[in-house]
TrEMBL record:
Origin: domain of life: Bacteria
Listed InterPro entries: Cro/C1-type_HTH, Lambda_DNA-bd_dom_sf
Domain HTH cro/C1-type: 9-42
Name of protein: HTH cro/C1-type domain-containing protein
Amino acid sequence: MCSYFGWRLRFWRQRSGLTQQELGELLGYDHSHLSKVETGDRWPPEDLPARADRLLGAGGELATLWPLVERERQQMIRRGQAVGRERFGDDAGPSPQPTRAEVVMAIDWLLARAYSDLETRFG
């Protein structure tokens, strides 16, 4: 989920025409930190999803993904895996799967967003 979050952050940043440097300056993060978040090598800070949503006009997508990312991080902590500065240790193992309810929540949001976009474009 962390990698998916990073992929979506990159999508919204590029759609907004911002570089990592520019987004980092607007959010108060170094561009290298954002680069690692975008590639899934670092966990996003807790305040980043909501702030990036507003700044990039992502319509709540990043904030909606945050609980799934945080759940993954918490599960890794419980399993004793590396979650500090770097996301994965050598023994990180497979990423935990989100619950059915979390997947349904994310899919519902994405479908509502897609429907709204289509309705706006095609009436």
